[in-house]
Amino acid sequence: MAWEVVIGLETHAQLSTVSKIFSGASTAFGAAPNTQASAVDLALPGVLPVLNRGAVERAIRFGLAVGATIAPRSIFARKNYFYPDLPKGYQISQYELPVVQGGSLSFMVQPAQGGAYEKTVQLTRAHLEEDAGKSLHEDFEGQSGIDLNRAGTPLLEIVTEPDLRSAEEAVAYAKTLHSLVRWIGICDGNMQEGSFRCDANVSVRPMGSDKLGTRCEIKNLNSFRFMEQAINYEVRRQIALVEDGGKVVQETRLYDPDRDETRAMRSKEDAMDYRYFPDPDLLPLEISTDWIDEIRADVDSNGLPWKVASEYVSRYEMAPSVASELTGTREKSLFFEKACIRNTDTDFPIALMSDLVFVRRVANWVVGEVSRKLNEDGGEQWPFWISSQTLGRLVLREHEGIIATKTAKELFNEFWDADRATGSCRPPDEVDAVIEKRGLKQISDTGEIEKIVDQVLAANAAQIADYKAGKDKAFNSLVGQVMKATKGKANPAQVNALLKRKLG
Amino acid sequence: MADLAHASVAELGRLLEAGQVSALELADLFLGRIEAQRDLNAFLDVRPEVTRAQARAADARRAAGERGALLGVPLAHKDIFVTKDWASTAASRMLEGYMSPFDAAVVENLAQAGMVCLGKLNCDEFAMGSSNENSAYGNVLNPWDKDAVPGGSSGGSSAAVAARIAPVATATDTGGSIREPAAFTGITGTKPTYGRPSRWGMIAFASSLDTAGLMTQTAEDCALVFNAMLGYDARDSTSVYRPREDYTRGLNAPLQGLRIGVPKEFFGAGLAPDVEKAVREALKDYEKLGARLVDISLPNAELGIPVYYVVAPAECSSNLSRFDGVRYGHRAKDYTDLIDMMKKSRAEGLGAEPKRRILIGAYVLSHGYYDAYYLKAQKVRRIIADEFQQAFKQCDVIAGPVTTSVAFGFGEKAADPLAMYLADLYTVPGSLAGIPSMSIPCGFGARGRPVGLQLMANYFEEAKMLGVAHQYQLATDWHRRVPGGA
Amino acid sequence: MALSKDDVARIAHLARIEITPEQAAETLAQLNDIFGMIEKMQRVPTDGIEPMSHPLGGSQRLREDAVAVTEADDRERNLRNAPEQNGGLFLVPRVVE
To answer: Domains in chain C: how many in total?
Structure first.
């Protein structure tokens, strides 16, 4: 029996407003318990909600970025249930009429087997709602401590149609969505802090069937790795269950990464009757076409990651995978652009700003060395400890052959670490100053190198013979000797070329 | 000091202005009267020293040169409005001793005008009831007849003003909770347009219906206090964005040519003859004053009760969910786990009527019933509201009875919730539409118990409505009658 | 629409109110009376009528995104009515996932 996997993802993105969706308390992460919970957040008797413009603006921005319809009129509804981290005994959300309707997201999927392909996922909707507080279980014997700092933080819940067909597709979608919400500036995407949480609805059905199987919801997947593992486990579990003659029970499950398995949650949330009705404390949200046009202009001017990547590919003949990585965050793509195509360093040769080879070289540096350093420091959100202009200068000198790649990389690492320690990035002129001071210049004078190559060849007849007999290692040894003789400063490309020419 | 005790807010304001009495003297006078009429059980929390401090502050403000018609005038607040300096219980065990960290907007506004708070007034628990028999802290007595209910839910507010132990009291009206007790106790009770007063700090019962208002001795007093009390509040999303107005501006409008719509459905079989008689007398008085009676029809007004008893419970079932014993309020002493803690805390803290309405509300919102009940009720609500708009094309104000009978005795309806609900027949339609309405005393009925005349006007026409009431009060003296012993 | 005992038990659980069998029986009778009265409303034709959620209509006002420091940080004042607390946290019986 061949099985088809059907997955829909629901993502809760915490919106990056400074205050809560319905109150003026701060949304900053990490405050002492209940110091960012106002009377409204605590649901004290007599309080009322007032809607945060910044939350609505971010929802509109998202809707425009995914080509969705922005509802001219949408309604807030109460989702009623009891839980200690839900102060009002209901969550203000949106039910029948959400603010964003439809939309789609396209992305590349690179499966374990087979070639990369493009996938498009339809979005059902995205709606605004408030986050709940937190329960802490550690320090209290038989009790839990409730912290309501998070209660009232604005969330955008983004729901896909059940279009995904594998864990890989789900992760690719989630990563694309994650990079998009950061790119358009609506969410900081910090998964460790809970800013971006995914629930996966997973079901299986016989291949060729068009009826949906019973689905299970896996909640609170807060890393891409766990998402992939959890979905794969759940798929295996459901297939095994059904092949054994059993039936999948619709339930909510949690993923346990230590055991690599999903298990059913104890609370019977699937039997919950939420008794949705329009919140009488809030009036219908009306969004004017003027406001949408204003935001649309802003979204367009900042571009969208896949559009910018596409431009890099067409204009600079960049490899799609490099372009995609470069547009992983808006910061990276801006950094890249300021290091080459929009470099404002007055000492930078204008002609190079549109030199495709140079541009691609800078791109490789950004997705290579720069990304590596960022990840070492902690991730993509961490600061760049080199300025785009300084990197531009460094890569320029490498490009010109003034310093070897190896030297460039060493300098890059040194600058990054030192400037992170002092907290201030050095200017581009420093690159040349250091090259000069330490005599790091490559020897690129063909005449000079040729002299040394001739010397080495003269002194290594045996190696020449080996090479001519087919031993490639001998060639490398000759290269090594030239490099040694020049104290590593010979331009390796030229050494190679000269040796090849002379050896025939 | 009998004169001062029976003085209206307008009169007290003038006396304070003229320096003939101080705020502190008035505070002491009314604190003494409250104490002397403790048997009414109108007050839940009185803190004399806090009141006196407010009075001294008002006197100091006047001494510093400040002027104001309400500066130093005493008032009392229904215990639905939260206050920093008195407990806020909503007459429930659930909130026994609860001290709010903030004041309600209505409380703030009136304090800013310099009014001096005498304390918090008893009411039906969470504003649910029509007789003040649902308070966790005991019944309130009708000052006109202590075997009779004062009405509800604002029974403490109406009894206090009727007995003149407070010259004015704030109150709230969701389905009739100002108008009905005002009628039962022979005073003026006014509910403005929904959204005109802020709901910030009003413990919520039914959010789309709850409206703050006043119990006063006269329509003129109501206008004076409305000037300070009503206004846009950014903290309340349903607060109407409209500039403040002078509600006294319509008081002297002559009645000549005024068209008074009389809905025939309000004079059907359910109306007691003694009430009908007093109401029709009042309408004749209006004709003598120059007004013209116009027959109108509100065909679906009688559906107001079933609509109200779907919408209000639905909203309150959700509004009362916050009372779960977690962050404030009553928590049970013994329980087995979290769910048990919540269930027991709510069972112990909430009275029978709130529980009943929560259950009705949870049911009408539950899966599979929402369309047939809640959605249906909201549609019929619009039909009722539209009928008022049609009516106002033919008349300037609408008049009729407030209640089907005079005040009933304790226990007469308490055992039968449905009978109690049906008493709201004439008040609920106006609540559903959100239009301003009021009750003014117009006589007495069976057993010497007061009768009220209901006036209703279109949205934002409070000034006109108060003027229509004021002209009647210039020509009659029902509003000056005070029960014996008061 | 007549309610059953099971309905009462179900909604009492939904509403987190503990109710004894005697209370449930009494409540059931009262609720059925009330629902009998409510039925009148259900017979009114309402095709094409917009439900009325807010008497005066209107649309939601938006608040500027800014932190209002007024009472947000006043944890001591906001928590003083707490039945049980420790270290600034509200304490409840253990929450089980």
So the answer is: 1
Q: At what angle do helices B9-17 and B219-229 cross, to 10 degrees?
A: 70
Asked whether the beta carbons of residue A280 and residue B327 sit closer than 8 angstroms, the reply is no
**Residues contacting residue A14 through CB under 8 Å, at least 6 positions apart:** A27, A131, A153, A154, A155, A187, A188, A194, A195, A196
Q: Given CB atoms, is A433 within the 8 Å cutoff of chain B?
A: no
pLDDT category, A443, cuts 50, 70, 90?
confident
**What CATH number has the domain bearing residue C22?**
1.10.20
* Whole-Å CA distances, B413 to A426, A470, B151, C34: 85, 112, 12, 14
In this structure, are residues B140 and B40 in contact, taking their beta carbons and an 8 Å threshold?
A: yes
Compute chain C's Rg from CA coordinates.
Answer: 23
With CB atoms and an 8 Å threshold, state whether C65 touches A19.
yes
* B419 confidence band (pLDDT: 50, 70, 90): confident
- 3-state SS, residue A4: strand
Q: Which of residues 135-164 of A touch C (CB under 8 A)?
A: 135-137, 139-140, 142-148
Architecture of domain A446-503: Orthogonal Bundle (1.10)
Domain boundaries, chain B: 2-253
Q: Is B177 tagged catalytic?
A: yes
Instruction: Tell me the shortest Cα–Cα distance from A125 to chain B, in angstroms.
Output: 22
- Which residues contact residue B16 at a Cβ distance below 8 angstroms, ignoring those fewer than 6 apart? B22, B23, B26, B62, B71, B72, B73
Domain holding C34, by residue range, is 5-42
Length of chain B in residues, anyone? 486
Q: What is the pLDDT of residues A197-214, one digit of tens each?
A: 999 999 999 999 989 999
Query: DSSP class of residue B265?
Result: G
* Distance (Å, whole) CA B124 – CA B155: 7
Q: Are B142 and B126 in contact (CB under 8 A)?
A: no
Distance to chain B for A289, nearest Cα, Å: 22
**pLDDT tens, position by position, B184-223:** 999 999 999 999 999 999 999 999 999 999 999 999 999 9
Nearest CA in chain C to B372: C42
Domain residue ranges in chain A: 3-286, 304-437, 446-503
Are A388 and A415 contacting, i.e. CB atoms less than 8 angstroms apart? Answer: no
Helix (H) or strand (E) segment spanning residue A118: strand A117-130
ipTM attached to this prediction? 0.96
* DSSP bridge partners of B293: B260
Residue C71 lies in a domain: no
Residue C28 domain flag: yes
Lookup: tokens for B73: 């005038």
How far is residue C60's CA from residue B165's CA, in Å, rounded to a whole number?
Answer: 41
Say which residues have a Cβ less than 8 Å from residue B36's Cβ, sequence separation at least 6. none
Write out chain C residues lying below 8 Å of A76, CB-based: 60
Residue closest to B417 by CA, chosen among B124, B196, B86: B124
Instruction: Yes or no: say if B317 and B206 are a contact pair by the CB < 8 Å rule.
Output: no
Query: Nearest 5 degrees, angle CA B54-CA B59-CA B64?
Result: 125
**Regarding the domain with residue range B2-253, which homologous superfamily does it belong to in the CATH classification?**
Amidase signature (AS) domain (3.90.1300.10)
Outline where A366-460 has alpha helix (H).
Answer: 371-377, 388-399, 405-422, 429-437, 446-459
Transcribe A289-346 into DSSP letters: HHHHHHHHHHHHHH--HHHHHHHHHHHH---HHHHHHHTSSHHHHHHHHHHTTT---T
